[in-house]
Design the sequence.
């Protein structure tokens, strides 16, 4: 079927690699090669130049890729509209989520969604906030769930939930033995996420707002690593309560408090301004909009 050929072709064009496309589509690499050969025979043109390191599209390939994305989108819309006539939600849903959401919030949302709509093919990718927004803009994701606000002209954002951020420290850190004082945070060692993450952006804003000097810092590419580093005594950090709730309960790490302040950030949905609006996506958007009611906030806020 020509649609199958185009779907494989688009995957190779996006992955720039036959084996990665095969893995993403859950088919064999020889199967991918056969689809591409069939397309090249169909059009009588070379579509891709293959090398050991990557795949490069020819001029004909670039032209076909742009048209293939439109054809696949129209095909999916038609299939879903026909399914809607039978009151069945089907199709595909590609979600990009930043780390905190992808690891601690999205699984709960998807468990309920998949239970009610088992015929929807769901693919989720976890990346930092900047990468998720870029994925939405490039049409790799139907929707992105990120920490903070996206600054991109061709996407629309919609807040869906507030996320509490807390200052944490190793249980034997000197700051845990006194009441919170902003001045005590001067010249401390901090553990950061990488630039581009929503958690790092929030931390940077707070450090600037509180006019803190940083004595030394360590950087990790995941919140899990930041949490483990704090637990091991490397320094203090600012993380979502979702990430550290179990460690707080066990006493592995300590919440420093914030002098009566409640530190929060906004979690938002990101979609292309003129993007696809399938039934599967519409239903998921409604699910996300109800997330603040459906999900229990993990633990009370210490005073």
Sequence:
């Amino acid at each position: 079927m020509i649609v199958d050929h185009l779907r494989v072709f688009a995957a190779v064009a996006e992955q720039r690699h036959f084996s990665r496309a095969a893995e993403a589509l859950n088919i064999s690499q020889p199967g991918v090669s056969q689809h591409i050969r069939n397309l090249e025979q169909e059009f009588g043109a070379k579509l891709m130049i293959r090398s050991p390191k990557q795949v490069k599209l020819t001029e004909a390939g670039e032209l076909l890729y742009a048209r293939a994305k439109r054809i696949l989108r129209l095909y999916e819309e038609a299939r879903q509209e026909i399914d809607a006539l039978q009151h069945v939600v089907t199709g595909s849903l590609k979600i990009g989520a930043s780390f905190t959401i992808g690891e601690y919030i999205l699984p709960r949302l998807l468990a309920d969604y998949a239970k009610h709509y088992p015929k929807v093919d769901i693919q989720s990718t976890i990346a930092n906030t900047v990468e998720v927004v870029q994925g939405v803009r490039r049409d790799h994701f139907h929707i992105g769930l990120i920490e903070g606000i996206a600054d991109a002209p061709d996407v629309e954002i919609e807040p869906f939930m507030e996320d509490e951020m807390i200052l944490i420290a190793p249980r034997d850190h000197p700051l845990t033995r006194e009441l919170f004082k902003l001045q005590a945070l001067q010249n401390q060692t901090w553990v950061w996420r990488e630039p581009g993450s929503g958690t790092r952006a929030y931390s940077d804003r707070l450090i600037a707002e509180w006019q803190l000097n940083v004595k030394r810092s360590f950087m990790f590419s995941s919140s899990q690593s930041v949490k483990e580093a704090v637990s091991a005594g490397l320094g203090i950090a600012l993380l979502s309560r979702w990430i550290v709730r179990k460690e707080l309960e066990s006493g592995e790490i300590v919440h420093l408090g914030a002098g009566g302040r409640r530190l929060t950030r906004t979690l938002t949905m990101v979609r292309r301004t003129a993007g696809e609006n399938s039934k599967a996506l519409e239903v998921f958007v409604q699910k996300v909009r109800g997330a603040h009611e459906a999900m229990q906030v993990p633990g009370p806020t210490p005073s």
Remarks:
- The CA atoms of residues 173 and 233 lie 8 Å apart.
- Residues 1-87 form a domain with the Arc Repressor Mutant, subunit A fold (CATH 1.10.10.10).
- The chain is about 45% helix and 25% strand.
